[in-house]
Design a protein that fits this description.
The complex is a heterodimer of chains A (366) and B (144). With 366 residues, chain A is mainly alpha-helical. Chain A is 76% helix and 3% strand. Chain A is globular. Chain B has six helices and two strands, in the order E-E-H-H-H-H-H-H. Chain B is elongated, with a radius of gyration of 20 Å. With 144 residues, chain B is mostly helical.
Amino acid sequence: MYSFYKYLKPPWLEISLLILLFLISYTALGLISLGMETPPGGMPAVNIFILLLGFFLFSFMIATIAVISGIGGGVLFTPVMLAFTPIDSLIIRATGLVVAMFSGLISTGPHMKRGIGNLRMSILFAVAYGTGAFSGAQGSIFVWRYLGEEGEAAIRIALGIIIALVAAYFIFGGQKLEWPKIETVDRFTRWLNLSQSYYEPSLDRVLEYKVTRAGYALAAIFFVGIISGFFGLGAGWAIVPVQNLVMGVPLKVAAANSTILIGMGDCIAVWPYLLAGALIPLFVAPWVVGLVLGGRLGAFLLYRVKAEFVRLLLIAILFFTSISLVIRGLEILEIIRELPGYVSILIFAAILLFVMRSYFKSSCRG
Amino acid sequence: MKQRTGNGVIISKAQRVYGSVVYWITITSAIICVIGPTLALANIERSILNPHYLFAAIWRGEDVNTVWQEAAGGFPGGHFYLEHFFAGDGFTQFGIALGSSAALWGLLAASWAFIKERSYGYALVCLFVSAIIIFSALGVVEVK
């Protein structure tokens, strides 16, 4: 009897309601589409239904991976959509922002409630990141005007190499990065009162964590914002390493803060696209639903997976971002020919497979 | 005003408030986005966008202006959902806009909780980020 009542309380209540509404709504949509006539030059309703269902399933998968690794889902969504669909890049970029935003927003609640997320840190980062991103967007116009395409290509390649070095550090840094030990806390960080505790299920105990060097971290996140605004990149790949390496934030907390920050920050970035008409309601809606359900699953899994899994997933994403940046830089310099979009997907799949293999190997040893 | 969870973790009220507000707004937004497209397809006459022409244009790779032109006879403006709330696509766009403002409502509620906790500095930071979101939604902050 108790197990039944469990499903009438949050979070099961709203998840069950959403799944039920999804089943009813999409069944109705399928039935309506069967009986509809197609106007000349229009897409048949059955095809529309299949597209909407496919978008839902894909977004569900993206959100699950994004929330566990602390990235915005855009890093997965954008290359796949650009590679495999003929859809206009502005519509893809705008929808990619919604993908990142909703995967962040839906995991914010559970992260905050369980203490794995840290609101004080997240809002401070939002200010640093937001001002940096705005400066970066202005800077990109300057560079484009004075340094031309070669300047942008050189910066992309340099950034790709830096990210690869960060990924290498994550490989060799090992467990000390999962739960860093902070000996001394500087005065500024103590004044900000950022330390908190969270329950770590894999250790079955509450971990009190301290952080340090908040000033340097805010400066680094401002710099990340500049890069993000400059290149129009997501920032999840950088926000997690900065918190972990500079401030000593435990890796899972860093991943949670990153998703909270992405949700918050993209609430600013998404409006210009909406006001420009790049967010088309019937195209965006199935992504939102998949993201909310997938993001909820991702948040659920983040508490249960080992911190090492988060580290390996992050390494995979860092290497993928690094390779993509270097390839794009070489393409702009015309050192290599423009590669077809599916190459990005193959690279990501190969890196992900390698990481999964490493994880299962270490799990078997452990 | 801090609360201990079942696992013994101590969490501030501002953090709980922000999490709850953002979570429930996001869920509401998702529910609207589940129902909206079905309403739009079930009642095409009342919708702004004709789904047949919309998806045909999107799938042909047309740009944003052409997509709106072909499916709706032109872009009716960013906040068109306010005038067409009861149309399937207007209702769906309202859901997306609601989700896009989730952090704003969460930050306003958190700033109030921070004031109650006497963390005035953090309350100010919350209000600062809220102001940026408002400016962005009004079209004052434009990122090109």
